[in-house]
Every structure is written in structure tokens, then in C-alpha cells.
Design goal:
single chain, alpha/beta, Rossmann fold, five-stranded parallel sheet, binds zinc ion
């Protein structure tokens, strides 16, 4: 399968990356844009292009192993706890001087690169200033503004954006066999996130979670303060539950990779990789789950504003149109938009490692305040 075949939309980003592989790559790239639009998947594809002897054939064993995250010349760094720490970066700084093990490059993918703390960022800067010829860094982030300007200025920027509903719907029809109408409905609900749209299309658990979230959003105007606190707990528990369910897929992938493993040394490496990946995926699943909460809450109050303004055809949650019509007070557009703004404020705070449980409660109470 050719490189980037699974990335939906993102023409600008893919043009930059393909040109880069064809003309000679830079040492550092910044993949930035919202969650769920394929930045991480594109980072693995691009890394395959950097390592593959012919610039990313998509067919060879190097390409396959990089894409599966088990190639020894590709290291993935992600926050351990809340931050990417200076110890993690020091290890990279030592490691980067070594020759590649097998391929023509050493690639470091830094997930949630914005979570480098200051010490880590300064240590990283040293390597970024004078990297060895074979070294390439791919910084992946949804909060580029939180990175040091001195780091940003040394990276080639590769922007990713939300995917438009028609493009997303075409993808869902092709990959999940949905009818056009169903595909468009999920595409609108997902608000530009490919990952979330595919989950909604393929996973009954994701659809159930969305309905629960809408149920909670609808309760905020009438709940007591105590009930609102409980709601924050319930939402957080549900997000963690969903994260656990997603980890089952990681376990299945590990079993597949172990079957491919040629000897005990490779097996041990795969075990270790998956231990790290498990931790990383769990954290990322919780982040994605919280993003889903925000998206759903913001979407619900946006829809109430849209219906209150009499523009029913523009709602995102079409399957709830009846409820929206019943619950939207005419003349309350400003109020609903204030609630959307309250959710977005929480979203911003989440990017900077604010305690999730507290932020959820804060979001619920500020929505309620906006609605009063
Ligand atoms: Zn290849």
C-alpha cells in the first residue's frame, strides 16, 4: 500500500511531505493541528519514507515495520505522566549520535511535543541545533503555541486541519460501507475528526457514549449542584472505561506482532515496546475521550443556538432534531453561544495538563452559569 494512503484529506500536509521525501528531507518537522485528523498516522508513514531505501515504497519490510511501530530506527517519545521529561530527552541526545541500526535514518517521533517541560525543551534544543546527518525529528502536537519559539523556528511546519464533512462522509462510505445519508450524519457529528467519525461508524460503544454525553448535556439546566458534581464523576468514569476498551485492540496487535517475531531478542523488544505503547495509548485514549466530551457538549449547545435561530438544517446532531426543537428557547441564541464558549474555555485549559476531573466539573458549572 502506498504511503499516506490511509490519511484522509490533508492535501497541504501531504504535498509538503511528499515533496520533502523527493527532494531531501529536513531534520525537524512540526505536525500540528487538531486531535483526530491523522497527524500521528502520517508521522509513521513519513518515518517509513525516511528509513526506506527508496524513499517510501510502502511495500518493503522496512516500510512495514516502521508503520507497525516496531522498527529499531524509529523511536517514539510520549509524555510519561504529564510531561516529556528531561531524562527522556537526554536519552535521545545520547542515542541520536549512534549510527542507524539497519536503515539509512534515525527517526524520533515526539507525540504531544508541547508537553516537554522547560528543562526538557532546553535539552532538546541542543540536539536540534546540530543534529547528525542521519537524524530526523517529527514533533506532533495539537498545541504548537505551547512550544518554545526557538524550537518552532527550527522545524518545518506541516499543518493538518479538520476534515470537511463531505470529504469525511465519502471516506466513511468507502471504508465502512455506510449509506451516504448515514455517513454524512456521522461526519457532521464528528466535526472534522477522522478518528472520531470512524469510531462512530464502526463501534457501538462510541455511539452509546455519544448518547450518554448528550443526555448529560441536556441535564445541566435542571440538575442540582450535587448532581452536577456527580455528573463530573460519572463522565470521567465513562471516559476511563472507554479507554480500557480501546486498549484491548493494542493487546491484539501485540499478539500479531509476536507471531512475526523471528527470535527471542526481537520478542523481548516487542514486549517492551508494547508495554510503553500500552501506557501511551491509555493516556491518549483518555485525552481523546475528554476531547469527545467537549466536542459533544459544545456541539449540543451550538445546535440549540442554531435551532433557536431557526436554522434547523445546520444542526450537527440531526438524530436529535426533535429534542433540540423542544428544548431550544427562541431568543436564547446568545445564551447558548455563551455555553459553547464556556466549553471551549475548558478545552483550552485541558491542553496545559490541567487536572481532568476538576476541569470537567468546572466546565459543567460554567455552562450552567452561562445558561442562567
Ligand atoms: Zn519501503
Amino acid at each position: 500500500m502506498s504511503l499516506f494512503a490511509d490519511i484522509v484529506g490533508q492535501e497541504l500536509a501531504l504535498t509538503i511531505l511528499r515533496r520533502s521525501l523527493a527532494t531531501g528531507p529536513a531534520h525537524a518537522y512540526l505536525f500540528w493541528g487538531p486531535l483526530g485528523v491523522g497527524k500521528e498516522a502520517a508521522a509513521y508513514e513519513f518515518a517509513a519514507g525516511l528509513c526506506c531505501a527508496v524513499g517510501g515504497c510502502g511495500q518493503c519490510d522496512t516500510c512495514r515495520r516502521v508503520r507497525e511501530g516496531i522498527h529499531p530506527d524509529v523511536e517514539v517519545l510520549a509524555p510519561e505522566g504529564a510531561f516529556i521529561t528531561v531524562d527522556q530527552i537526554r536519552e535521545v541526545n545520547r542515542d541520536v549520535a549512534l549510527r542507524p541500526f539497519e536503515s539509512r535514518a534515525r527517526v524520533y517521533i515526539l507525540l504531544d511535543a508541547h508537553s516537554m517541560n522547560k528543562e526538557a525543551a532546553n535539552a532538546f534544543l541542543k540536539t536540534l541545533e546540530e543534529p547528525p546527518g542521519h537524524a530526523h525529528f517529527i514533533l506532533v502536537t495539537s498545541a504548537a503555541e505551547a512550544l518554545l519559539p526557538t524550537i518552532l523556528s527550527r522545524c518545518q511546519r506541516v499543518p493538518f486541519s479538520r476534515v470537511g464533512a463531505p470529504v469525511l462522509a465519502r471516506h466513511l462510505t468507502a471504508c465502512c460501507g455506510l449509506s451516504e445519508l448515514e455517513a454524512l450524519a456521522f461526519a457532521r457529528v464528528a466535526q472534522g475528526s477522522v478518528t472520531y467519525a470512524c469510531e462512530l461508524a464502526q463501534d457501538a460503544g462510541a455511539r452509546a457514549q455519544r448518547e450518554r454525553l448528550i443526555g448529560w448535556a441536556r441535564r445541566i439546566p435542571t440538575d442540582s449542584p450535587l448532581e452536577m458534581q456527580h455528573m463530573a464523576d460519572e463522565i470521567f468514569t465513562s471516559v476511563e472505561g472507554r479507554a480500557e476498551a480501546k486498549l484491548e485492540a493494542v493487546a491484539a496487535a501485540k499478539d500479531r506482532d509476536l507471531e512475526w517475531a523471528a527470535n527471542a531478542r526481537v520478542k523481548a523488544r516487542i514486549e517492551k515496546l508494547y508495554e510503553l505503547r500500552g501506557k501511551r495509548e491509555r493516556r491518549r485514549a483518555v485525552t481523546a475521550g475528554l476531547d469527545e466530551v467537549m466536542r459533544t457538549f459544545a456541539g449540543w449547545y451550538r445546535d440549540l443556538a442554531v435551532v433557536a435561530a431557526g436554522a434547523d438544517e445546520a444542526v450537527l446532531n440531526h438524530d436529535f432534531l426533535l429534542e433540540l426543537r423542544n428544548e431550544a428557547f427562541p431568543g436564547s441564541v446568545e445564551t447558548y453561544l455563551a455555553a459553547v464558549k464556556a466549553v471551549r474555555g475548558t478545552m483550552e485549559r485541558f491542553r496545559y495538563n490541567v487536572d481532568a476531573r476538576c476541569a470537567l466539573e468546572d466546565m459543567i458549572f460554567s455552562i450552567r452559569e452561562a445558561l442562567l
